[in-house]
Input
Amino acid sequence: MFQKDWVPKRAGAGMCMAAVFFGGMFLAGCTEQPPPKLPGDTWPTPPSPTAARQKSAPSGLKGSGEPQRFCELIALNPDRVEDFQKLHQKIPQAVRDAIRQKGIRNYSVFICTTKDQVYAIRYYEYVGESYASDMAELERHPDYKTWRNAWEECQVTLMPLSSGDWWAPSKEICRLE
Output
């Protein structure tokens, strides 16, 4: 069921809202204007090993040999979709190397277009030992920051600004290998 608290707090009377059914939940996002500049895109905080063990879906626990899997969703500014695609189709080698050095594997970005909105879905796997530390270091990498800042302006977050999240996380409920 659609929950009002998913609507970004910046949504005012002059903004158009779109609700989309994705992965078993409704998400709402803005379609008319980009969000205010936030202090950088952030990687999600993985579940603690104790909390992850309590979930029924596989989570890729540290030391289990399984990667941690992440799938996230964000809306794209309709005027910047082409820019976003170009920036992801030609990722500079220094950025590719930095992402790989920090334990990110199988990094994929998909575009999904609905009647009213274009979304980006990113999937990646983390295989390192200290996710928070590795992601903090990646955020400080100069080449990564330059690349990220370029595509960040193409996005419209679906999360409440107070959450601190930029991309909307999703929960893995099934995997067939």
Confidence is low (pLDDT under 50) at residues 1-40, 48-62. The chain has one domain: 4-169.
